[in-house]
Amino acid sequence: DVLQQLCREYDLGQTQVQMSASIGVAFYPEHGDMTEEILKKADAAMYAAKEAGRNCWHLFEPALIEKTFDDMTLVNDLRRALARKEFFLQYQPQLSIDGARIVGFEALLRWKSHKHGLVSPARFIPLAEKSRLILQIGQWVLQEACCFAKKLKTMGRQDIRVAVNISPRQLKDKAFLDKIRDSIAVSGIQPSQLEIEVTENVFMDALEESVHTFRQLQTEGVTLALDDFGTGFSSLTYLRILPVNILKIDKSFIDQIEFDTRQLQFVDSIINLGHRLGISIVAEGVETQTQLDELRSCDCDYVQGFVFYKPLHEQEVFELLKRY
Ligand code: C2E
Ligand code: MG
Ligand code: MG
User: CB of 311 within 8 A of CB of 92?
Assistant: First the structure.
C-alpha cells in the first residue's frame, strides 16, 4: 500500500535516510463536498496519525475537529491565565523513608480557570508546551517556587529543598541558566534550596547541551532530579551521561511492587544502581503502607505520595512544618 511504498530507505548520495509517513484519510462525499473541506478534514486526521505515533494512517472522525476546537479554546484562555492570576502552586512533601523528616517539596502547577474551573495539568501542560506558553508560565512557576523557598529560609528551614518541574522548551531556551540564576538571586535563596526536575524525553535532541547546563547548575549548588525514571526508551543512557543527584522512580513501577516480585526486584535493582552511582532515590506515587514497607526493605531514600501527603496549599505547608 501507499505507506509501505513511502516508508523505505532513500539514498541521498552520501547518506541513507529512513522515511516514514503519517496519512490522514477523508472521503467524498461523506466528509464534505468541497475540496477544501475534505483536505481540512484529512489534515486533522493526519495530525491524529502523528499523535498515534507516526508511520500509520488515521480516518477522519468528527470528534477530531471537536478536540482541535476545544484545544484552541483552552490555549486562548491559557494565554490570558497569567494576567488573570488564575495559576497557583501546590507543594507535595517528600519525606525520608521512615517518615520522620521532610526533605523537600515538589511545586505542582494548578490552573483554576474562571471559565473551565480547575483544569488538570495532564490536560493543559501539553497545550502550553505546544503553544510555547510554557516559557512564560514556567518562568512564573520558577519565581513563585523561589518565593516559597525564601519563606522557608526565613523560617530557618533552608534545609528543605523546593523542586520545580522544567519543561523541554525551557531547557532549550538559551537564557535558561541565567533565568535560574536570576530567580535565585532576586528571591534571595541559597542555590542548594532549589531542585530542578526534568523528564527523560526532555533531552532527546539536546543531550550534549543539557549535560553542560546540568554541570554548570550543579557546580553552583542546584540539585538535579531525573523525573519519571524508567518510563522513557533510553533511561539508562540518560543515567549514564547526565550528572544527576536524584532519581525519581515513576509511579507506574511503584504500583506493581505489592503484587509482582519481578517488579519489586526491578525497583530494588534501580535503587542499587542509583546508590552505586551516588544518586539518591525518590519513590513517587506511593499510596499504601505495603508499598512503603517494600521500599524500605529495598533501601529507598525518600518517598513522595498519598501515603504521607497530597499536594498542599502554602498555608497548609506552614502548619505542617510545625510538626517536623
Ligand atoms: P510529575 O512531575 O511526575 O508529578 C507527580 C504527579 O503525581 C503529580 O500530579 C502528583 O499530584 C501526583 N501524585 C503524587 N503522589 C501521588 C499518589 O500517591 N497517587 C497518585 N495517584 N498521584 C500522585 P499532577 O500535579 O497532576 O502533575 C502531573 C504532571 O504535570 C507532573 O508530573 C508534571 O510532569 C506536570 N507538571 C506539574 N506542574 C508542572 C510545572 O510547573 N511545570 C511543568 N513543566 N510541568 C508540570
Ligand atoms: Mg515532577
Ligand atoms: Mg514524576
Answer: yes
Neighbours of ion ligand 3 (CB under 5 A): 227-228, 284
Q: How far is the CA of 234 from the centre of ligand 1 (A)?
A: 21
Q: Quick: pLDDT tens for 162-193.
A: 999 999 889 889 999 999 999 999 999 999 99
CA of 58 to the centre of ligand 2 (A): 33
**Does the reported pTM lie above 0.85?**
yes
Dump the DSSP string for 182-193: HHHHHHT--GGG
Assess whether the C-beta atom of 311 lies below 6 angstroms from ligand 1: yes
Residue corresponding to grid cell 543531550: 207
pLDDT tens digit string along 52-86? 877 889 999 988 888 888 888 999 999 999 999 99
> What Cα–Cα distance (Å) separates residue 133 from each residue in 25, 73, 138, 177?
31, 14, 8, 19
Q: Is the peptide bond before 93 cis (omega within 30 degrees of 0)?
A: no
